[in-house]
Amino acid sequence: MNVIINFYTGNVIEKNGIKDINNKVIHRQYDTNLGNKLVTVSLNSNLQTVAEIVENNGLSQRIKISFNQNDIKNNISEVYYYTDEIENSKLCTELQDYIYLRDENSVYFTITKSGIYNFLIKDVNHREYKSAQIEISLCNKPVLSDGMTGIYWDEEGKEITVENENDPQWYNYSSILKFANAKTQDGNYWVWIPRFLYNITEDTTSIQYAIETTDKNTQGKNIIGYKLQETFKNNDNCYGFWVSKFQVNEDYNGSISSKPGQTLTITYMKDTDKKLKNYKLDVNLMSKQERDAMIVIANSENINISNDLVHYAGGGVTQNDYILNTKYSSTGNVYGVYDLITSENELFSDSNISDLGRYRLVLKK
Fold this sequence. Notes:
Elements: E1 3-5, E2 12-15, E3 18-20, E4 25-30, E5 39-42, E6 49-56, E7 61-67, E8 76-82, E9 90-91, E10 96-101, E11 106-111, E12 115-123, E13 132-136, E14 148-153, E15 159-161, E16 181-184, E17 189-194, E18 196-200, E19 205-209, E20 227-228, H1 230-233, E21 240-244, E22 249-250, E23 256-257, E24 267-268, H2 269-277, E25 284-285, H3 288-300, E26 356-357, E27 361-364
Antiparallel strand pairs: 1-2, 3-4, 4-5, 6-7, 7-11, 8-9, 8-12, 10-11, 12-13, 14-15, 14-16, 16-17, 17-21, 18-19, 18-20, 21-27, 22-23, 24-26, 25-27
């Protein structure tokens, strides 16, 4: 505890602030004149902690804490947080990647757990600033299978291999819809679809990511009007699923692949079942509900996927055409699932055995 004492009178002049839980007001005690009794006053209402989300990659969020006034001359001494009003405040230095930038008088750190966070600053003059509140929403982390490696693309469209699963460049489930992508050892491309809830009204489609394997959002709440997407409703233990980025094509020796720039294969449902049994990964034929999951996500961002009239995976004859053909992507960028809208018949796990068409694969987790 920091205490200021007048050694002439022995009176306490100032000591650490006391948080009034019920009224959410910060008080401090001080002696206005020598010999007077201690009095309690409310903290200046203009002294406000500012909390901002400066980076959001879906599974963690980078937070910035600063003062609300540009003319503040004092430096930050400590930053505290609490997620429950009945718990004691904790130092933000305990949070991941904490850093204090003296030149801009701000504190940064990373939060990796969903919840409602309250932050407050104490400056070097022992003044406490009214708390600021932020709601952190994170979604389920991609689960890589054996032989699967995360990938992303740099600004020039070059494919980059993820060396660390915590790499913030890998994915971003905020408004830009940078979904996690991966490749298997056979060179096939995959996209991770996290467990989510959705609500469709007459004019809009909205989604919220679910927490773990529940039907609640990332704050652990049931939101009126939202329901679990049917794919996950039929699989209670599903955190999400990997879907082949492109419709399946087959090379000259009949190997199943999901690669760009390849001629899309047409097959019978009965033949597809036989080929899947010989495939190395534990995959399944995509269902209509799983396809609908990606369409719902696209609709929630008002993305109109173009009909792929070119019979090549990714809409182009070369392996890199898909980077430019993002109008065929479910996210409107290179990170989505391609070839979802097509003029050709598509085979699903619930198709008739005699149906003829193109198909894609899913890998459950």
